[in-house]
Amino acid sequence: MNNDLIKIIVRFFVLILAQVLVFNHVNLFGYINPYVYILFILLFPVKKETRMLFIFLSFLIGLIIDIFSDSGGVHAAACVSIAYMRPVVLRWVFGNAYEYQTLKIASTSLGQRSLYMTILILTHHLILFWLEIFSFTSILLLLKKVLFTGILTLCLCIMFMILFSRKKR
Questions:
Q1: How confident is the model at residue 169, as a pLDDT?
Q2: What distance in Å separates the CA atoms of residue 25 and residue 93, rounded to the nearest whole number?
Q3: Which residue ranges make up each domain of the chain?
Q4: How confident is the model at residue 31 (pLDDT cuts 50, 70, 90)?
Q5: Model-level pTM greater than 0.85?
């Protein structure tokens, strides 16, 4: 089996287990829950020929989280949404490296990675919490949840990327 395929499969299952067994039980101040499983979507290899597989796997990881969280499909909807808009964000943040298919997210600068992850994480959380709350009368609660959960998720995702990235010599 291809080394990249093994990494994708392992990352898929490890992030699901981490989310379901650990991070779903973190509840800071009654409304802040980190969603680190979206690292799978953020770090999926950038190849145009795998787009349909990528969107399907994004749906699948969201659906599995929904099943374990009993959340009625909001994670699946949010995951498919950011998977669909990911190429636009990649093109905007990374430019030519994305256009020529030479982009490796792990080898980009921390600032570019942070911007890329911030955009997708906040978009994911905005869709997720809007579908969860589904009311414009609670707009302040929605924005508070998006902001603070997004900050915690972003910090954890950056920490995991730094901890688990291989050092180049």
A1: 38
A2: 33
A3: 3-164
A4: confident
A5: yes
